[in-house]
Amino acid sequence: MMPSSPRLLRTAGALWIFLTLIWLPFEDVATWMAVVLAGGGCLWLWWRSLSKPDSNRWLGVISGALLGIGTPLFAIFLMAVKSGLHGHGFADFTTRQIFGVLNLIPFTFVIGVVLGLSVFLLKRQ
User: Fold this and answer.
1) Strand, helix or coil at 1?
2) Do residues 55 and 119 make contact, with C-beta atoms less than 8 angstroms apart?
3) What local confidence, expressed as pLDDT, does residue 53 receive?
C-alpha cells in the first residue's frame, strides 16, 4: 500500500527540511508556500505513523482528520517563525492573511478525512 521504507521516509523528510530552509530567508509575503510546506510536513508525519506494521486502520482516519486540522495551524507557526527570523519592526504577514489560512481548516479537515478513509479502505483489502 504505502511505501514504508525508512530510507524513503528519511529522504522525504530531508527534502522537506531543505525546501523549508530555502523558503525562510526570502522576503515573500504570500501564504501559499507556508500552506504547502505545512501540508507536506503534516503529510510526512501521517505517512510515518501509518508506515508502522502495527498501525490500526482507524488510526489513518483519526490522524488524517487531526493532521488536516493541524495543517493550517502549522502554516501559521511557519509564518510566525519566518516573521521572527527576518527581524523587521513589523510582521511579514498581515492579520487578514492569518485569518485566511485559518479559514482553510474545514477544507483541510475534509481532505484529511478522505485520505484517512482511503487508507482505511486500502488496508481492508
Assistant:
1) coil
2) no
3) 67
The gap from C-alpha 86 to its chain's centroid, in whole angstroms, comes to 22
16/42 Cα distance (integer angstroms): 11
The rounded mean pLDDT for the chain is: 86
The full DSSP string for 64-124 is HHHHHHHHHHHHHHHHHHHHHHH--SS-SS-HHHHHHHHTTHHHHHHHHHHHHHHHHHHHH
**Locus of grid cell 523528510:** 13
pTM, two decimals, is: 0.85
Buried b (16+ CB within 10 A) or exposed e, 34-69: bbebbbbbbbbbbbeebbeeebeeebbbebbbbbbb
pLDDT digits (tens, 9 = 90+) for 87-106: 777 778 889 999 999 999 99
